[in-house]
Design a protein that fits this description.
This protein has about 475 residues and is α+β, with helices and mostly antiparallel strands. It contains 21 helices and 15 strands.
């Protein structure tokens, strides 16, 4: 790579060829990171828009003394709808059910750049430590050193299951994981990762800002501007240079920005939160992986989703180890298991080699009912691999709803094809669910007529949906 690019990325003024510098490899990685993640965000915040591609911003972010003395801005907090989608069932059409909203907090532009830099540093070290501890393929979420997606991980799990004659499958989920992370233990984990007894001043300032963060409710920001349709108001505010005039910010910050003094929780969605969520569970992953590996099993954790596969031992069902592992998981600080999302399944091949999956009682091992494994959006019944039906129903529901909007407004045809068709990437630069279904079939070898139906003639089906919606909109 050209020296000029590397020196630009690292703001380096050392009169030395990059290939002769011991930091050359890291600078190459940093350059690629900026290239992929260095664009400015479009939303308005308390500070002006900037990004890592801005020289002055990058120079400050790379200066530990500047970071240590930086005053971090409050996060903007709002409640995001977390509606549950219900597919067509018992004659009822696909529809949404209102659920409790999820709290989102997003950082200012300069703070985002700082978090990106320190996320990059921590992530480089985490990847090295994960490999050393043997958990590189166990902690599978937010991994920058692996060119794998959910479909690859689902394939690995299903392939492993199919290679066994019999196995137990434990699936579970952490409740509100990011909100429960213990600050003292997280700090200890970061120190251990970096091989330090205490955090250096700059990293401590970053750590303190992401744990003892301040939040400013979006509703109070909206009340400063004109009231009206929340979506329209939000769009208008985000078109401004600042979400509040500086004078107004200074007069209100003491009353509106509330600090997190609970000793736990980090804001989900910040550039550094993902790597911190993995660092927090290094010891946990190492312990569970070691116990599962002794039984020639498989352990995978995708953020707060757990999957443990244990081949059945010679005595029948290895229920004892399953319950021991579950007890250990429950005892780890900052982790609360969602019992309603925790289940124990059993895979078994019959005399003809065909597999089946049943749910079993965790205490007695008794078979309860025939079921399927639902993992990372892929369903497996012991033989067939399919996409989650709800995802397919959601695609049809949203596509038809968009078609109805186009019929009403008499515009937007390009937009619908740029989101819901196989030409989406060509039109909008983004992949569609059709592309996802194609990838799933290529990677997993699906046996899924419903997924096939999305891929086949999707352009014609979209046009048909628009035409049908237009007919309904025509006056009698």
């Amino acid at each position: 790579m050209e020296d000029a690019k590397l020196k630009w990325a690292s703001c380096c003024k050392i009169n030395l060829e990059c290939r002769e510098c011991e930091k050359c490899v890291e600078c190459e990685r940093w350059y690629r990171y900026i290239k992929d993640h260095g664009d400015a965000k479009g939303y308005a915040h308390f500070d002006k828009r900037t990004s890592l591609k801005d020289y002055r911003t990058r120079r400050n972010v790379l200066n530990p003394k500047w970071v240590a003395e930086h005053a971090f801005w409050p996060l903007i907090q709002f409640d995001k709808s977390k509606d549950k989608f219900v597919g067509k069932k018992n004659g009822k059409p696909a529809h949404r059910i209102k659920k409790n909203p999820r709290t989102i907090r997003y950082c200012s532009h300069i703070d985002r750049c700082i978090y990106q830099k320190y996320s990059f540093l921590l992530d480089q070290q985490y990847n090295r430590v994960a490999a050393e501890k043997g958990i590189d393929s166990s902690a599978i979420a937010y991994r920058t050193n692996q060119s794998l997606n959910n479909l690859h991980h689902a394939k690995r799990a299903i392939d492993f299951i199919e290679r066994t004659e019999q196995c137990l499958i434990l699936v579970s989920d952490f409740a509100s994981y990011f909100d429960q992370i213990n600050h003292a233990l997280l700090k200890k984990a970061v120190c251990s990762l970096m091989g330090e007894d205490s955090l250096p001043a700059d990293l401590y300032a970053v750590f303190k800002s992401i744990t003892m963060y301040s939040s400013w409710p979006w509703t109070s920001l909206m009340s400063f501007w004109k009231k009206g349709n929340p979506r329209i108001t939000r769009k208008e505010i985000n078109s401004k240079e600042l979400v509040l005039p500086r004078k107004v910010f200074r007069s209100l910050v003491g009353d509106e920005a509330k600090r997190n003094d609970s000793g736990k929780g980090i804001p989900q969605g910040s550039p550094i939160s993902a790597v911190l969520s993995n660092i927090y569970l290094i010891d946990f992953d190492e312990s569970v992986h070691a116990q599962v590996a002794k039984q020639s099993g498989l352990y995978m954790r995708y953020c707060d989703d757990l999957l443990i596969v244990l081949p059945v031992d010679g005595n029948g069902q290895n229920l004892g180890l399953v319950n021991e592992l579950l007890s250990e998981i429950k005892s780890y600080p900052g982790i609360t298991i969602q019992e309603e999302k925790t289940s124990l399944l059993k895979y078994e091949k019959n005399e003809h080699g065909a597999g089946s999956i049943v749910s079993i009682n965790r205490e007695t091992g008794a078979i309860e009912s025939k079921t399927v494994l639902d993992y990372l959006g892929v369903m497996f019944d012991g033989v067939n691999r399919k996409l989650r039906p709800k995802a397919i129903s959601k695609y049809h529901y949203r596509m038809r709803r968009k078609a109805k909007t186009i019929a009403q407004q008499k515009k937007g045809r390009t937009n619908i094809y740029g989101v819901y068709s196989e030409r989406a990437k060509q039109i909008s630069g983004k992949r569609s669910f059709v592309d996802y279904a194609k990838s799933a079939n290529r990677i997993l070898g699906l046996n899924d007529p419903e997924a096939d139906s999305i891929v086949k003639h999707n352009m014609e089906k979209i046009a048909k949906a628009i035409n049908q919606a237009s007919i309904k909109e025509e006056p009698n």
